[in-house]
Each structure stands twice: as C-alpha cells, then as structure tokens.
Amino acid sequence: MNRTWIIARHEWRRLFSSPLAWACLGIVQLVLGIVFWLLLAEFAGLSYSNTQIGVAEFVGGGLFGFSSIVFLIVVPLLAMRSFAEERHSGSLELLLASPASLSQIVLGKFLGLVGFLWLMLGLTALMPLSLQIGTSLDLGLLAAAILGLALMLAAFAAAGIFVSVLCAQPVVAALAGFGLLLVLWLLQIAGAAPGPLAAVAEHVSLLSHFDALRRGVFDLADVAYYLLFCAAFIGLSIQRLAWERRA
Amino acid sequence: MSLLLNASDLHRAFGPHHAVRGVSLSLKRGEVVGLLGPNGAGKTTTLRMLTGCLAPDRGHIRIDGHDMADTPASAKARLGYLPEVPPLHGELTVTEYLQFAAQLHGMGRHQADAAVMRATQACGLEQARRQVIGSMSKGYRQRVGLAQAIIHAPPLIVLDEPTDGLDPNQRRQIHSLIRALARDHAILLSSHILAEIQVVCDRVAIMARGQVVYTSALDQLRPIDGDAAEQHVIIGLTRAPSREQLLALDGVTAVEALNAEQFRLSLDGHADTREHIARTAVTQDWGLFEMQQQHAALEQIFAELTA
To answer: Where are the domains of chain A?
Structure first.
C-alpha cells in the first residue's frame, strides 16, 4: 500500500485512540445540536407570509455557517498534534528515518486529519438532512453548502498543519494556527471596507468563498480557491521540513 | 564492496556552531561499533545524519551501497534507527505501533503481522503485545523502540544511547539483547558509558569536539602515545628482588612499583617474554602469586582525548 495512505490511516487511528478526538467529536456535536435546535425553533416561529427563505437555507445554511466558527477553533487543536507534538515528543524521527518521503509524510498527515474533519462534518450534515423526513428540502443547496464546508475544512487543515510544522511547542502551534485562520477569516471584513486593497482582501478571505457556496451558489472559482489554498500550504509544509533537514 | 555503512567527511553546523566536522565512519557486516564521546561531542548529530533525519552540510553517506542523498528511500530501507528518545506513539498498543512501523517499510498486512511477532519475540515483548505503550515502564518502552528498529530486519541498526536512564538490570537486559541482535545485524551505537561499550562492542570510535579522534578494535586498544607494541604486565611477588634484578629480565624496559609486592613491568612487545619472566620468578623463589597482562585502559584513553 502507498505510504501516504498508511500514514493517513495511522493518523486516523491515533486520533481515535486519544481522548482529544472523542472530546472534540462530542463537544462539537453537542454545541451544533443545540444551534440546530435553536435555528429550527426560530424558523418555526417565522410568519407564513415570509416565503423568501426555505428551511434548507435557513436551518442548513445557518448551521453550517455557525459550525465553520466552531471548526475554526477545533482544527488548530487537532492539527497541533500532527507535527508540533510529534516533534516535541521526539516521535517525528520515526517518520523522518523511514523510507517515506517528506511529501508522503505531510500528505498522509493532511489526509488523516481531513478524513476525521469530514467525519465530523458528515455527522453535522445529518442534522439538517434529517428534516427530509418531514418536508422536502432543497438538496442542491445543502449539497453546495456541505461541499463548501468540506473544502473549507480541508483548507483549515492545510493551514493548521503548516503552522504545526513551524512550531516546536504544541500549544504555540494551536494558538498560532487559530490566529492565522482567524486573520484569514477576518479579511472578509476588511474586504467590506472601502479602499484599493479591499478587493484583494475579499478574494483572499476564507469566509467569502464559503459564503457563496453556503447560499447554494456553486462557482468553480470558489472550489479552485480552496484547492489552491490547500496545495499552497501543503507545499509550504514540505518545503519547510526539507529546509529543517538541511539547516 | 562489503562496507555496510560508509560515511565520509561529514560536516554539520547549526548556525555558527560546528557540531560535526569531518567525521568518517565505516561498518562491516556483523560488526558492533560503539561511538563513544562526552555529551555534546556530536554523537547524536552524526547518527541523525547517518539515518537521514538531518542532511549533512558536506560529505557522503552510503548504506549498503545506496547513497543517502540520491536514493534516500532505498538507503533508509536498509537501516533501523532508535533515537535517543524512542519515537513512540503512546496512545497505541505495542502491536498497533509496530504494525505501522512495518507497513511504513513497505510490508503487507500478513508480512507485517509476522514481523511484529518476530520483533516482539526478539525484544522480549511477547507478554506486552496488547499493552498500551503510554502505560509501560521506561525499560519496556526502550524495548518497543528497539523492536521498531529491527522490525524490517535491516542489515544496519543505529542506536542512540540505548540504555540511557535505565536501571542496572534493564541495562543488562538491553546489553544482552544487543549482543543477540549482533548475530544477524551490524550495529552502531552511541554511548557515554565506557563499561557499556566494553561489554557490547567489537570496535570503538571516540568522538570529541565533532571529530572522531580515536578508533580501534576493543581487544587491541593501544595507548595514544608511546610505542604501540609496548605491553604492560602486572606481577605480584611476595619476596620481591631489587628493581635492578627485575629490569635485568629479558624484554623488560621499565619497572614501576605499585606497592611492596606488586610491580608494573613494561615489556618490549616484539617478543613475548612472559613465560621466561614467570620461570625466572619461580626458580629464583620470588614468591610469584600474580601475573596479568594489562591492556591500555579505555578509560584512560577516553580521559586523555576528551578532557
């Protein structure tokens, strides 16, 4: 089997052997479950005359929008394990001295983390999808929103892993990762301000590309943005590890 | 070419600090070589370069004929490495962890299962296969680290201070483990414990200030200065004669009285005259009760080179 997959599967298994992953799963599901319930109650209270907005957009879009903020906090915590903690405990040498290449190591860890995040996303998506039992949902809109969140989670993971590669202290890695994601997130607010840089900020922001998908607007440019974002941070991580070996 | 490890002229600096300057090392099949040196001599840096964890600034490393810079995957496939801190994943069981290590080396599931059985058996971990690594004692963790290093049956095993921090019993167990492994593997191990090197190694290389300053087979240690062929014999005589009489013996070049009854004789090593000395001592009725050859002590050599 390819070493990338072996490393990814190993990461996955390690996540489920540690209390951190279970705690994340449990707490995230609890919080999002409450949000889901609140959104549902709010939607039920809307007057019938307001037909502008469907249940899929209101509940689904709202839930995914809120969950992106939750993941913003959770992902750096999970990503810090991948390199910073391994370096701290000395276990990174197992991979470095093995026949696996640096790209296989980074890609494997990335895929392992993304796999876990997508599992969390899948569980979250079940909540709005369960409404299909009682009503007919705009499944296209939900699919776009799920795709958007899946891509954004991959981007979070890539950025988190890059910060994890940079740091020797797990806590610093988690904090710095959170900081980086938050800045990339807040760029959207900068994008709303007047000025020549606003358009650039809007373009770079993680959130603005998600917002369109969340509303059910599927644009290949948004998908390409997230894929490029992932590729860039994975590439940077590999370069950084190669540099570390040399310097 | 029968050299299993051939490293030439390795250099490595960390910023302005030159950790390793011009180290060359080679290992033949079936050899156990001890890399001896005080803390900070560059042992770990050297081993990390040899195992591909660190790239050398200059120099070449070949493992069983495979260049570490050009073909790292095939070079690394031929070596097992136990770093100073065993690279363990504490949340996994021994079997889970070792299976991953085996698969990293390209083994299939069934092959990996067999390899885990073999490695745990070799390291005395049969009873601990299902134990979670994080709950194990330090000695056992070290064994798991060792099992990880031999899981793919590499021709070369590199061990960085394998007994550091272990109690004397655990240390003895690791020593006998290393001796047992030496039957099928070449082993390079670092240590700052002289007794350890003497127990497990065939050859010693002493490092100081980033260089290999001395290398010799352990049964042929020679003093750093003076005639390499010179031998020393400790002789014990209850009715010792005068110094002059001892000096007059065949081959004796110097006499040093250790106390009233024991003397250290320096012998010209070109001809072995110990038998002659013993016979003379008996016929002259000097009361010979002890006679032993003294090798240049590793400790003395180490102290002189690294102080």
So the answer is: 3-246
